[in-house]
Amino acid sequence: MHLVLQNILDRRSCRAFTNEPVRREDLQDIVKAGVYAPSGMNRQTRQFTVLHKRNDIQILTAAMAQALGKEDYDLYRPTALVLVSNEPGNPNSGFDCACALENIFLTAHSLGIGSCWINQMKAVQNVPDVRAMLTAYGIPQDHSVYGMAALGYPDASAKGHKVDKTAQVVRFID
Fold this sequence. Notes:
- It is a single chain.
- By secondary structure, the protein is an alpha+beta fold.
- It has a single domain (3-156), classed as NADH Oxidase (3-Layer(aba) Sandwich), CATH 3.40.109.10.
- The model has no long low-confidence stretch (mean pLDDT 93).
- It contains 6 helices and 4 strands, in the order ααβαβαβααβ.
């Protein structure tokens, strides 16, 4: 089977990570894959913000937990987090970020790094404490975070989710 297709078929969300940090070189490759994702009208207005220090991730997680009203919220305790933001006035912003995140997930998987899509930032990014942190990380005021990639080495005890093949509909129109 083709290597790219095999990577797509094998990748699953990882929701349990070890404490081993992801190598910076691997993070650079992972984000590079996101940068090279397609963007509508080739605008390339996305920004990738990488948190790879445990303390930064914990502080952001705590602010999000408070904003969400979920004290046990933990983003699955990743050792790296990639926030993908874009200009909300661009009609393709969400799609552009989604394509970038998929590239990020597939590249991470090919390197033996687990990943999980995190959506909750979209709901809390304008809470003052959270927005102040995003601004401090260099995310422009005119950007929305459309998704985040939680990254880390998979905990061996974590089990991947199965694909529900009965929920998939594919029709070839001949």
